[in-house]
Design a protein that fits this description.
This protein has 100 residues and is of the alpha+beta class. It has two helices and six strands; from the N terminus they run βββαββαβ. Strands 1, 2, 3, 4, 5 and 6 form a six-stranded antiparallel beta sheet that branches.
Length: 100
C-alpha cells in the first residue's frame, strides 16, 4: 500500500437481521477488480447504521474469510453463495489498510 500505511487484519462478527447484513461485495476472480489489479473480494457498500456498519465493517475492506472459508481466490458468484449460506451470524476476516 501507500507509504505510511499498513495492512491490518480484523475479525468482524455481523448479526444478520430481517433486513439482511447491510453490505455489498465487489470483485472476485473474473470480475473487474475493485481496487487496482487485485481481483479479490472487497466490501463495496455498507448500509449506514445497518448490521455491518454497527459491527465496524468499512468500504474497501478486503474479505479474506467468510465463516472460516477462505475466499481470496473465489469468484464473485462463489463469494455471494458463501455469504448467503451463513447463518444468523456472519464472521468475516478482513484486511484493511490503516494509516499510521
Amino acid at each position: 500500500g501507500p507509504l505510511g500505511s499498513r495492512l491490518e487484519q480484523y475479525e468482524i462478527h455481523i448479526e444478520r437481521t430481517a433486513a439482511g447484513l447491510g453490505l455489498s461485495i465487489a470483485g472476485g476472480k473474473g470480475s473487474t477488480p475493485f481496487k487496482g489489479d487485485d481481483d479479490g473480494i472487497f466490501i463495496s457498500r455498507v448500509t449506514e447504521a445497518g448490521p455491518a456498519d454497527l459491527a465496524g465493517l468499512k468500504v474497501g475492506d478486503k474479505v479474506i474469510k467468510v465463516n472460516g472459508i477462505v475466499v481470496v481466490d473465489a469468484d464473485h458468484y462463489q463469494a455471494v453463495q458463501v455469504l448467503k449460506a451463513c447463518g444468523a451470524v456472519l464472521v468475516l476476516v478482513v484486511q484493511r489498510e490503516v494509516t499510521r
